[in-house]
């Protein structure tokens, strides 16, 4: 009786009926799945670790530097050298084309080139005709810089300035205040160095994101129709 009571007290398997599970000895029951460790439940969203639905503090992941400086107009001597020269030419002659291309890459095909190039062109012409300089388009284009910085966890202008100068470290540690200052610095960068900012963003995106119009290196299988067949007379 005591052994039978012990068998009934054992936890039954959820995959077996209660009567069958109670009849199986404790040493023959399938082992229970081990509980996951807290580290195993960690997920990632856009490169930021998330635990139990809450993102881990951003300072846990060190922010990366931009692939090129804002004044590196000619880019770097690497495999993207020709692309950097194209970006420099577009930023100097046709910034509207460069801005439309940047947003098209960032949106991964969800936003068309014309939907971004045409509004920028209108603001560019309006600012130059009314105020004599391009003062309206930077207000329209600076959110793209913020989106690039957040998506790829890049170091902002304010954080880079405080790291080099060694003061205002408390503002960098406060994520909310730091982000407000970084957005203001993104706007100031586009107003003070607008062509250079567009070129830096273009170089960064071309190193990270292929053009949405390309096939991204995937193989293409083309099915050819069967050739015309004729029946020959046997010998």
From TrEMBL:
Name of this chain's protein: Cell number regulator 8
Compositionally biased intervals (Basic and acidic residues): 1-11
UniProt organism field: Panicum hallii
Region (Disordered): 1-34
Pfam family of the protein (one): PLAC8
Domain of life where this protein originates: Eukaryota
Organism phylogeny: Eukaryota, Viridiplantae, Streptophyta, Embryophyta, Tracheophyta
Localization per Swiss-Prot or TrEMBL: Membrane
UniProt keywords, alphabetically: Membrane, Transmembrane, Transmembrane helix
GO cellular component annotations of the record: membrane
UniProt biased composition (Low complexity): 13-25
């Amino acid at each position: 009786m005591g052994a039978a009571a012990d068998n009934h007290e054992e936890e039954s398997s959820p995959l077996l009926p209660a009567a069958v599970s109670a009849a199986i000895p404790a040493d023959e029951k399938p082992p229970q799945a081990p509980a996951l460790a807290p580290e195993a439940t960690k997920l990632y969203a856009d490169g930021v670790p998330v635990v139990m639905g809450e993102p881990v503090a951003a300072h846990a992941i060190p922010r990366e530097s931009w692939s090129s400086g804002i004044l590196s107009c000619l880019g770097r001597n690497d495999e993207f050298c020709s692309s950097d020269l194209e970006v420099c030419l577009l930023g100097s002659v046709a910034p509207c084309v460069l801005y439309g291309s940047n947003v098209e890459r960032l949106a991964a095909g969800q936003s068309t080139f014309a939907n971004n190039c045409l509004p920028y062109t209108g603001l560019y012409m309006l600012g130059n005709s009314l105020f004599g300089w391009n003062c309206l388009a930077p207000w329209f284009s600076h959110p793209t810089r913020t989106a690039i910085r957040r998506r790829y966890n890049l170091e902002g202008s304010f954080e880079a300035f405080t790291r080099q100068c060694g003061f205002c470290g408390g503002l960098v540690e406060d994520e909310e205040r730091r982000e407000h200052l970084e957005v203001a610095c993104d706007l100031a960068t586009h107003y003070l160095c607008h062509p250079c900012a567009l070129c830096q963003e273009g170089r960064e995106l071309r190193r990270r994101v292929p053009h949405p119009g390309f096939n991204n290196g995937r193989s293409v299988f083309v099915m050819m129709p069967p050739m015309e067949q004729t029946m020959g007379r046997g010998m």
